[in-house]
Amino acid sequence: MRTSVIGIGLVALTVGVAAQAAGQGLIFDARRIGMGGLSLGRSASLVRYNAAYGAVPEAADRRGRPRVTIPIPLGLIQFLHDHPHLSTDPAFHPDSAGFNPILAVNTLLNLPIYLEVKKAPTPTNDVVFGIGKDSLRVNLGAAAQLVPEDQFGFGGSSRLLNPGFGIKGVRVSVLGWLHYDLGVQLNDKLLAFLRDSVEAQPRTGYGVFGNGIAEGGFAPTVSYAGRVAGDSSTGLYLGGALHYYLGAAYARSSISAGFTTGDSIFTGPNPVTPHDSGLTSYSKPGNALGHGVGGDVGIAWISGPIELGVGVNDIGATLTWSDTRQDSVFYRDSTFSKPFRNHVSTTTKLPVSYVANVTYTVGKTTLGADVLNAGRGATVHVGGEQRIGLIALRGGIARDQRKRIEFGWGGGVRLGALGLDVGFWTHTNSLSNERGVTMATSFSIY
Q: What are the residue ranges of helices labelled H in 86-235?
C-alpha cells in the first residue's frame, strides 16, 4: 500500500502544478514578458480572439510592434550543457536509481527555453512514515501544501492554421482547431491522508476522480472584418466569423482509480484492493466526421490615444459525432477495457473564449490591460512601456487562472530595424510554494 500512496501522491503533485503551467501559457516575446504578458495592438491573442482586429490597420498600432520576433533560447543551451546525453541521463529515467522525479516534473512545467535566473526552491523536508503493527500515517511536511484541495486541471482551445483568401473584408478560409481539457480531484479520504496526515483507516476507499477530453479537426470559415465608422485614427471596427466545424477525431474519459483498504492495514489475506473503473468514448480518425456550427464576434474602437476591444469565440459550437465507440474500463487483477456500445451518437461542446483589452498611448508612453479566457478561467494582464530614445523600459503584473499574482519587468534597445529585448517573469510553475524568476531574451526585426 505504501507504493500506491506514494504513486498517487506524486500524481496529485504533478497534475496539480501542471494546471499552473497551463494558466500562464508559453510566450516567446521578451518584450511581452517584460510587460507581464500584456498583448498590444495587432499581436498575439488580440487577433486570435477578436475578429475585428483583422481590419484594424497598422497605422492605428503606434506601439512600435516588431514584424518578427526571434527568441534566444539561453535556457535550452544551459539545459543541454547540464544534460548533454538526455536519452541516457539517469535523472530522467524512472527505471534508474538516479531518477529525480522533482527535476523531471519541474522541467516539464518550465520548458527550458529561457534561463531560470532564480529557481523556486523545492520543499526539502523529509517525508515521514509512521508505521505500526496495524497503522500507517504519512507526513509530507511542507510538500503537503502542494496537494490541491479542489479540482485541478488544465485545458483550452487552440487554432492552429487558417489559410484562405479575402476580398474587401470578406475572407474564406479553412481553420484548424483543437480543444483539450483535463480535470482531476482527490476524494476526501485521500486528501485528508496526504494533506492533513490523517491515519489510514481499514475498509476505506482512497481514490482519484478524473475526466478529460481531447478533440480536433478543421472548420471551413466565412468571416468579415471592416471599419463601419470613422477613419484610421478614429474609427469603429466590427468583425465576425461563421464556422462549420468538422471533427477529425475525439476521445473523452471519466475514470475513478485508487484502492480500498481491507479489514486491517497490513495483516490479513487482502490488506488493500486496487480499483479502476470508468467509461471512455472515442471516434478515431477515419470514422464519420463530427459536425457542428458556431461563430465569433468582435468589436474594436480606436479614438486618438485610446484603443478598446472585445472579442468572443466559438459561440454555440456544439459538435455531433455520429459514429462513437464506448468502452468500459475496470480492474480485475490488472486494468482491462472492453466494448460497451458501438456506433452511437454523442455530442461535445467547445468552450466559449473571450478577450477584452484597453490601451492608452501618449507620446512615448504606452499603458494597457487585458482579460483573456481561453476556456478554463480568466487571466488578467496590466502593463506598460516607456521609450526613452533608443531604450525602452517595461513593467507589468498578471493574475493567473488560480488568482495568483505574477510580475514582469524588462527593457530593450533598438538600433534601426533591429532590436534586442530582455524580460523577467516570476512564476510558480514548480513543485514549490515560492516564486521562481525566468529571464527571456529575443531579437526583434521592425
A: 101-109, 188-195
Query: What whole-number distance in Å separates Cα of residue 399 and Cα of residue 231?
Result: 35
Enter the C-alpha cell of residue 213.
477530453
pLDDT of 238 reads 97
85 and 47 Cβ atoms separated by less than 8 Å: no
Are 52 and 40 in contact by the 8 Å Cβ rule? The answer is no
Q: Are 208 and 255 in contact (CB under 8 A)?
A: no
Task: For residue range 226-241, list pLDDT tens digits in order.
Answer: 999 988 778 999 999 9
Query: What is the distance between the alpha carbons of residues 383 and 368, in angstroms, rounded to a whole number?
Result: 6
Cα–Cα dist 308/369, whole Å: 10
Beta-bridge partner residues of 249: 216
How many residues belong to the chain?
A: 446
Helices 101-109/2-24 angle, 10° precision: 20
1 has pLDDT over 80? no
Q: Is 363 exposed, middle or buried (0-12, 13-18, 19+ CB in 10 A)?
A: exposed
- Note the pTM of the prediction, 2 decimals: 0.77
Q: For residue 7, what pLDDT band results from cuts at 50, 70 and 90?
A: very low
> Which position has the grid cell 506601439?
63
pLDDT top residue among 202 and 380: 380
C-alpha cell at position 342: 458501438
The residues pairing with 152 across neighbouring beta strands, listed in sequence order, are 184
Residue 333 Ramachandran class (φ > 0 left, ψ -120 to 50 alpha, else beta): left
Residues 378, 370 contacting (CB under 8 angstroms): no
